[in-house]
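Students often ask what a 'structure token' actually looks like in practice. Rather than answer in the abstract, let us consider Integrase, a protein of 352 residues. Its sequence is given first.
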Amino acid sequence: MSGRTNANIYLRGKTYWGRLQIAGREHRSSLRTTDTREARRRLRHWKTELEREAVTGDSDQLFEEAVIRWITEVLETSVKPQTMRRYTISICSLEGTFKGVRVRDITTRLISNFVSGRSGNVTNATIRRDLAALSRLLSACVAWGWITANPALSFDRTIIRERRDPITLPCPDSVARVKTACPPGMAAILDLLEQTGMRENEAVSLMAENVDHERHQIRLIRTKTSRPRTIAWATPGGNAATLLEHAPRSGLLFPNRDGAAYRNAASNYGQVMRRVAARCEAESIPFTRFRIHDLRHAFAIRWLKAGGDIYRLSRHLGHTSVKTTEIYLSALTADELDRVLHVGTTDGTETP
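Now compare that with the structural description of the same chain:
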């Protein structure tokens, strides 16, 4: 910083931040400028506001100020990168309604306006995720003493219940075409997802040392719930033996072309699928689009149609409740359903 130095101003990247001690409490905030003189001016203004609040008890912190503090003090130190990305996406959606609004002026009515504005444009599941992010943010504001209650907790979310779309199984020919068009690492990941039903992030981060070739098991460490689990690689839903027996015995199991883990496998896959779909359309070849997660659905349904035990399937998939797994029962015939509900199997997932 040129000119007279100021210990209360510091750089984070190219942006100036302020640090103040008011009434025995330390405050830190982005000054949202890269200009030295403007940073000093904003620091003086911020100090005046904090001193006034200390005397009057009023709080004029804006939504975007809460976001900055929440990200730097909470998210960056306590959540997974995937969760961080999800919250960041939600924050971008929330800003359209709440940017420039004082935190203490956020009410259930304003939250309702946000929901109304989003309804019809995105799914109810997306709206509920946005509200979850808002609620976490406002809970942090309560902890900081900015507000006394979290208005998001008073909003009735039952009016925006999640509606699950019917499960659509991917077409085998379409899956095969996409695999053929994928780089080797991505094609192997799709094979693994299809044969084991694990989640995308679990497959992308899988290390060779987590594959037990003697017991024919896979130890999943980086899971959605942060609870490691062990799954069999041959089950009623699929068999990954051929794939895993020819896989590397050290390091990352299925890396990208640079030897690193895929950072966004779904996006990489989506690009390939769009190219394949366009080519098939141009050549009048039948092709049905599918999501990566549809491979997991197909695995679960194959397991149940083969008479596999639903409780073992639930553990294999890493569901916290068998209620989640029961969505797949709708894909069974009456005879298959009766067999699943009354007959078990010895194949499946072992309890860690």
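One point worth highlighting: The mean pLDDT is 88. Ask yourself how you might have guessed this from the sequence alone, and why that guess would often be unreliable.
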